[in-house]
Amino acid sequence: ISGRIRPVTPTELSTYSTQQDAWLAIRGRVYNITFYLPYHPGGPEELMRGAGIVATELFDKVHPWVIYDSLLAKCLVVPLRADRPYAE
Ligand code: HEM
Ligand 1 centre and the CA of 69: distance in Å? Predict the structure, then answer.
């Protein structure tokens, strides 16, 4: 599917958790942090704690003042959506 935004679920997000291909979600947005890892001031290991997960709480616990959305503007992948968006 090209030319269309396809939201990622937390389940799919969890498969991107290696240093070679790391995604992270904060406040409903999914970012590919792979290329930012070497530049993270707290080190790649710290940033990897948020890899493959919805890391909003972790992020806010460590540095709520960081303007992550600007820093990761070019790393934005897609919106996050709930695993089960609709009641069955
Ligand atoms: C600094 C952890 C995500 C940007 C730090 C530091 C830690 C840390 C421990 C402090 C380093 C020090 O002062 O020695 C984490 C963890 C993350 C995470 C566990 C997982 C969610 C991010 C993201 C960004 C980011 C997504 C933005 C792209 C920064 C910046 C600093 C920093 C700019 C320097 C902040 C300052 O000195 O005021 N991080 N980080 N971090 N991190 Fe993260």
Answer: 13
